[in-house]
Amino acid sequence: MRNLKLSHPFSIRISLFLFILLFVPFLSYGAETSNMRGKRYCEIILAKTISSYAVYNTWGLNDCPEQLWSKVSISAVKKETGSSFVHLNGPRYWVIDGFKNTSLINPAIKTISGIPMREAGILHLSLMDLFKNKPYQSHVVDRKTTWVYQADKPVFELIDPNGQVFVMQSYSVQKYPQTMNTLTQLGAKLQLPKGWKFKTGVLNKPETIEAVNNKAVVVQDNFLNTYQKASHDFLK
Q1: 53 vs 96, residue with greater confidence
Q2: What is the pTM of this model?
Q3: How many CB atoms lie within 10 A of CB 2?
Q4: Phi and psi (nearest 5°) for 42?
Q5: Please, which pLDDT band fits residue 157 given cuts at 50, 70 and 90?
Q6: The organism sits in which domain of life (predicted)?
Q7: What is the layout of strands, in order, in the sheet containing 98-100?
Q8: Is a pLDDT exceeding 80 seen at residue 228?
Q9: Count of beta carbons in the 10 Å neighbourhood of residue 111
Q10: Who has the most CB within 10 Å: 44, 54, 187, 234?
């Protein structure tokens, strides 16, 4: 990892794209699988090679304490881990209620800058992926996950011009201050491309989103909130 060299503009492009893929939390079967909505987590992403990146996630271990996270710096993590590329991703908050059929890449705990984490996923990025860093562009993530949404809970959807539905799985406070309550106002704030729509409502029945064939299709809005493609509109 010490021999990996990345130019400054190249690193910025990777950072932007990694925002889209931060939802690779392959959580352990022993971690909490319900009552996840509104829970906080953070990630630290480290370069393994020129085209692969390890995602370390706090979920199931801690809620990314602010007194620790606020002191984490890229330079310190580089020195501690020996990684030539570091991206700090968080804090983020879940908008799903639980998960099932999910597993960690590596269950061993690794403490980074005083915060216990586990390797939740590995990102494999091509040059084409690195340049697809604009909001509202879909990307495929290799992972084995099934998100659970409970009845009588709010959901937030993006619908593209082709009618494909993407349901929010987590929201970010890294770019703008947001809460679960302010998400209902996103429709008036998002810079939606032509033909895109934002919907919100309360579920009449439980729903799930599965990574079909271990591949999840995700998009991100201009607030850095993340959505995964669903098989149907949850609000119909």
Answers
A1: 96
A2: 0.80
A3: 8
A4: -140, 165
A5: very high
A6: Bacteria
A7: 98-100, 146-149, 207-210
A8: yes
A9: 11
A10: 44
Q: Which two tokens stand for residue 134?
A: 């604009």
Longest dimension (CA), the chain: 53
* Closest C-alpha to 123, from 229, 32, 216: 216
In sequence order, what are the residues at sequence separation of 6 or more whose Cβ sits closer than 8 angstroms to the Cβ of residue 117?
A: 43, 44, 56, 57, 58, 61, 109, 110, 111
6 exposed, middle or buried (CB, 10 Å; 0-12, 13-18, 19+)? middle
- Distance from C-alpha of 146 to C-alpha of 97, rounded to nearest angstrom: 11
- Chain-centroid distance, C-alpha 214: 16
Spatial separation of the C-alpha atoms in residues 11 and 5, rounded to whole Å: 10
Mean pLDDT of 131-148: 79
Gyration radius from the chain CA atoms: 17
Contact in structure between 197 and 186 (CB atoms under 8 Å): no
**Residue 217, both tokens:** 């299709």
- The H-or-E segment that residue 88 falls in is strand 86-94
Which tokens in the block code for residue 18? 């990694």
3-state secondary structure of 197: strand
Give the tens place of pLDDT for each residue, 35-83: 899 999 998 989 888 777 888 989 889 999 999 999 999 999 999 999 9
pLDDT of res. 148: 96
- Classify residue 77 by burial, with Cβ atoms within 10 Å: 0-12, 13-18, 19+: buried
